[in-house]
Amino acid sequence: MQQWPLQPAGIPPAPIATLVTTCADVWLPQINAIGAVKSAAPFDHHLSSFAAAALRRPSSPAVVPARSPKSTQMLSSSFAAYPAAAAAARRQRRPLRPCQPFCSQISTAALGRRLPMERLSITNALASPAIESVPPAPLNLSFPILVNSCTGKMGKAVAEAAVSAGLQLVPVSFSAIEVPDGKVEICNKEIHIHDPSESERILLSIAKDYPDLIVVDYTVPDAVNANAEVYSKLGLPFVMGTTGGNRQLLHKTVDDANVYAVISPQMGKQVVAFLAAMEIMSKQFPGAFSGYKLEVMESHQATKLDISGTAKAVISCFQNLGVSFDLNQVKQVRDPQEQLTLVGVPEEHLSGHAFHMYHLTSPDETVSFEFQHNVCGRSIYAEGTVDAAMFLHKKIQSGADKKLYDMIDVLREGSMR
User: With a threshold of 0.90, does the pTM exceed it?
Assistant: First the structure.
């Protein structure tokens, strides 16, 4: 039996070990409970409580075995050495319910007073399960969703995520890319592909057949404004996941048509949270990085033609923080070999990734800051897009006055699954 690591002042170690050894066969689970608070309370308290428990007998002998004569003799010796503890033990003698935890004698309040407390901080508060907020219940929604276009990798990923979430995938999409037999298969469902020039006519018919329809757009930058005009003209709510185009005109189109829409340059949940933090910092501390030099590098699959919308949003925040920077200074990496050697993109994700790096240097070059976020694959964007569609459906059903939203609104609503 190991001795108590922390000996009370003036108390020899041997009697403590003797007492623990004496009662180990009777109160082994309770020994562990006392050991957990051995440094939190005075020694007399532990000895008297422990000895009193040893003297008490539960009603069921099956719960606690009888003490041997040797154990009784050793316990008596311990009482003789510590008369104060013996007196306290006699005072505590009272019936004990079978299987009652011994540690219940040590109150929670006493532990709170005696145990060392961690310094209060935001980090500790967030990590504490006692104050952890209950996550919102998952949304049980089912509504029709049309993904334009399902022929692209991002559109296909969103369609698969929508089916996985229990949404009704409309078997129609649009693309200028020719596909065999004019259709693609997603989650064992045939999606008929039409030319974009037919989108207005077909969407008008689809809207009649599928009430509560929401359109998700993952096409190409050049089609952003034209597609938004069609959706708005037909009064179709939509989620714009495509980057590029004239964003001011895009917002004006939605406002003029008074349709519901979620428009965001970034659909990844965690990246959206980072963007929200950047926005808050730029508004509360304008000019904090005045004079600093900014370098931006962003790497995406070779098929992405425009500068990342996320990069544009982050750069805008840095500009509000006092940094002078022009978008033509962004280093776009699209060459696969350079992505492998310079950026460090895993080879299996060359066809689908988003690596961003923002490096700040002080005017005298003695201080530097670096912000980086790397994403491999498309699932983070697909899931966020489906969350945005669910959020928009709820807003429509509730008749919300506000019509135009972004992903930060979705994040604040707590609609993320």
Answer: no
